[in-house]
Design a protein that fits this description.
Number of helices: 25
Number of strands: 0
Helix content: over 70%
Largest sheet: none
Shape: globular
Strand content: under 5%
């Protein structure tokens, strides 16, 4: 742009600065920021927010505060985003006292603080075990009419669980529900773990199922460390792991791309005489498909047959998605036919997977044939169906047909998303005309 004598606007620079910040390429952000000064491109409040965030990431908190003063000298009023960014930076470095000072200063200057601002400080106080101050700030937050987030409630629930005060912990859970805030997996993990400790403290011996509930919860919230600690605890106490225990471990190993360990665990299960079930096989197949090990994933389907474990639509959909990612759409189609022969009904995910696979390769005739089959089976096209078809048509430079599909999807009550429009803009010849017609 600059070499073509086109002066970038502040918004353009902000987009680039934001991208560099998200990618942690802070040095590149500073080079661009210096370029803005050289070209006399004005900084907006958004520019300052991004650069304060960059400074916080670099641990330069003093300079971040100086930037705050620099904004005000230039007559740019800080926003709640500015406040949240700098408070988060100080809390992250354990400097909660400084964060409180900024909180008070911003409040005094009329900045409308939000629930996220309060949540950051409450979390920081709890980490420093300043629980009374955290509770007091929470009460002040409620009095201002702000609605706490699930994360803030979880912070307080964790605090009371660690103190052994189950009544207060469950009280906060009830308050969440009453205010229409859905408890998360972490909420229940905290409460279940405290109940678990309560049982042990009263001489009650936890069973395998008790451990499995906890292990599964930690795996689902991707807290592998706690999941493995609990597994080791089971073994020390002489409690035999069950299929559910093993399945949870396979799930978390798969998510961490540790498929060799997942396979070793699976072999150990077989050696111990434990018969894997459908859920365990699906977890292992999903891991191998996600990591591009399609040969191993397909071999597991044959192992299921040998062990008389019947696959379901999840098994086949996972395998089909893995094959389509590798461009092996014909093999995926064979799996769909195999599903039907086994009496397993394909669902809309099965058909969308094939449509997407054909569209990526530009095989639009085959993609539309699958769509017709999908319709004949009583499945209505979804946003994913249309996006895949539109992207494929645009890839083949068939922009007119893509626009027809856009009109069809809107007439069916399906709202296009960014992906729909990006595909269309890439694939049509007269972009300006298309954008002018955007409203209609």
């Amino acid at each position: 742009m600059t070499s073509g004598n086109v002066m970038p606007k502040t918004r353009t620079c902000n987009e680039l600065l934001s991208l560099f910040s998200k990618l942690n390429r802070t040095e590149r952000a500073w080079v661009l920021y210096a370029g803005m000064f050289r070209l006399k491109i004005e900084s907006s409040v958004c520019t300052f927010n991004i650069m304060i965030n960059v400074l916080c990431k670099e641990g330069k908190l003093k300079m971040a505060k100086e930037f705050l003063g620099f904004m005000e000298i230039l007559g740019i009023k800080p926003t709640v985003v500015t406040c949240n960014t700098i408070i988060h930076g100080f809390c992250l470095r354990g400097r909660v006292g400084q964060a409180q000072m900024i909180f008070s200063a911003m409040k005094g200057r009329g900045v409308q603080l939000d629930s996220y601002t309060y949540g950051l400080l409450i979390s920081g106080m709890c980490k420093e075990r300043r629980f009374d101050e955290a509770s007091g700030l929470f009460d002040k937050m409620l009095k201002t009419g702000l609605l706490p987030s699930a994360v803030t409630y979880n912070t307080l629930i964790d605090r009371y669980c660690n103190n052994g005060d189950l009544n207060r912990a469950f009280g906060y859970r009830d308050e969440m529900v009453m205010k229409g805030i859905m408890p998360t997996v972490s909420t229940y993990n905290l409460l279940i773990h405290e109940l678990f400790m309560f049982m042990e403290g009263r001489g009650m011996v936890p069973e395998a199922i008790t451990y499995n509930i906890l292990i599964n919860g930690y795996c689902r919230s991707e807290n592998a460390k706690k999941a493995f600690i609990l597994r080791d605890e089971m073994l020390i106490k002489g409690i035999e792991p069950t299929k559910e225990t093993y399945t949870s471990r396979i799930y978390v190993l798969s998510k961490r791309k540790r498929m060799n360990e997942a396979d070793d665990l699976f072999e150990r299960i077989l050696c111990e005489g434990v018969l894997p079930d459908l859920v365990m096989f699906n977890a292992l197949i999903d891991g191998h498909c996600a990591n591009g090990n399609m040969e191993r994933a397909l071999s597991l389907l044959r192992e299921m047959d040998k062990m008389k474990v019947h696959p379901d639509e999840v098994t086949y959909n996972t395998l089909m998605q893995g094959l389509c990612r590798e461009g092996k759409v014909e093999e995926a189609r064979e799996l769909l036919d195999e599903m039907k022969r086994r009496g397993i009904k394909p669902d809309y995910i099965s058909y969308n997977t094939l449509i997407s696979g054909h569209s990526k390769r530009g095989d639009m005739n085959d993609a539309f044939k699958v769509r017709e089959e999908m319709l004949s089976r009583g499945f209505n096209p979804t946003l994913l169906t249309y996006n895949a078809l539109i992207k494929g048509l645009c890839k083949n430079q068939e922009g007119d047909l893509a626009q027809e599909l856009l009109r069809e999807m809107v007439s069916r009550g399906i709202t296009p998303d960014d992906s729909t429009y990006y595909s269309l803009i890439e694939g049509i010849e007269n972009v300006d005309e298309f954008l002018r017609k955007g409203d209609s």
